[in-house]
Predict the 3D structure of the following.
Amino acid sequence: MAKTLQERRAERQLMIVLLPSLLLLLAFVIYPAIYSVYLSFTNEALTGAAARAPRFVGSRNYARLFNDAKFWNALFVTFVFVLGSAIIGQFVLGLVSALALRRRLMFRTLFSSIILLPNAAPEVVAGFMWISMLAGGDHATLSRIVSFFGLPTADWLQVFPLTMIIVVNTWRGIATAMILLTAGLSTIPQEIYEAARMDGATPSQMFRRITVPLMMPTILLYMLISTVSTIAVFGLVYALTRGGPGGATELISIYIYNQSFTAYQLGYGAAVAVIALLVSLVLGVAYVRAAKVEI
Amino acid sequence: MSAAPPGESANRLRGDLMAYATLSLISIFCAIPFFWLLIASFDGNAQLFLRWPETWTFANYLRVFTKEDGAKWLFNSLFVVGSATVLVMVLSGLGGYALSRTRAWWKLPFLYSILLIRVLPSTALIVPLYKFLLTLNNAESALLRPIFGSATRDIMRWTGFIDGYLGLILVLATMQLPLSLWIMKTFFDGLPRDYEEAALMDGATMIQRIRRVLVPLALPGLAASGLFAFMSAWGDFLLPLILLSSPELQTLPLGLFRAFLRINEIDYGLLTALAFIYLVPAVVAFGFARRFLVQTFSGGVKG
């Protein structure tokens, strides 16, 4: 009897020390998430008459969204951005780096440190560096490299905006893919490769028959987690292009920002945000289930 | 190994050479954008383009602290991010301990919730968050004005939710909490309960147990939790962009961004020096955090 009393007291104390974290998360994450669903059914605005007396407008925001070419453009841009940078660019370069770094090479630490560097750079700094890289005129670094190989130069961010932000985001995320895939590779026992080599398997056979199948769970997890985090990218692209030119790099996150804080349409911005929240949540649930996270 | 046929060692050599070639190319791709920042910050006449300086100088770095607002931005960033990091360490230490030790019904729902919170894009939360903070801010200012009168504005600069230090610190800290709570919970899971139970037997109170037993044991975990909170808050651009408008409160990312928008009067030497100063803590923290990186993908990869 005395023990259960003590246990109950201990449980209460644990609840109390967790309370501040719980309150902050409720106030600044959970409540806003729920509030955004509410906002998305109103004509709330940042200024003007609608800001003083917002009205409930039912599903009008969602109907408008459905017919809004700029919204579909944002979805499309986000899709291409995720596909190009997270699913293809970062994955391929990350996998190649992880495989190469498994060999006993000299300067391994140096190589992996350099590959990690872009990930450490704050978004705004990364944006600046790439503005310099990609600027128009013959003096920009990329133009110089390209003309060294005898190819024509361009004002890169104006002519190939979407391709360029894909390149930049690939640059930034190789490290994440490399780290996750290295961890996955290290779980494959070396004996399997030894045995295959005994049987006369070629390196490409071993890659296709051993590495790829055994890496599938890791690859799936990587795809989910990098998709979710790439949907959330904002500062890097905003610092580079602010969504332009003409919406060519207007990711869904930038579209939400522009609708809410440039056009002051909070209700409509919230409707777009709800879509982004739902997509991320679905992918997040898939991740938690696929990762079999141990709690 | 020594029994390997000659064909195999040739194969290995070729593989190694290919690995060197690929890694070199990828490394060049990763490193090249940094050259401009590094070199231009020491160039007396820096341009938007990468070029070899005619005169090398420290003047750009000196000007950060003498001219312009660079020093103020740096201070604001250090203060805001430092406070948020300390707050996260305290809260995640306590909360992670609770999450590890509790047997209550809310343990699993809470843990799943913080995993899912991590996937929510912050741009999608920023609109309602802004509205909510605006309401809080107006309420606070209505409360303070009758008491402090004209001094209210100066007080709100510290305690305001919009355009004030407090709001930015709290929100920045909250955004780092899910990962930090997770790190600390996992860390405490790996700590045996023997020490606490011994302390409990000796009649130590909760506070004593935390101070004498848990804090010393938890230091490595707290270091990891603080490191990740610092890195993520230090690099964050969206929150200061939304929450700050006064020039005096601007943090480094915001100040840099706005300075870079003044197309015709960009002082590249000063800005690259400032950006480099902003970059260094991030890289140092990242260097320390390297060995924890894998675990942060929530619960590790179990392939």
The radius of gyration of chain B is 25 Å. The domain at 69-266 of chain B is CATH 1.10.3720.10 (MetI-like fold). Residues 231 and 282 of chain B are 6 Å apart (CA to CA). Confidence is low (pLDDT under 50) at residues 298-303 of chain B.
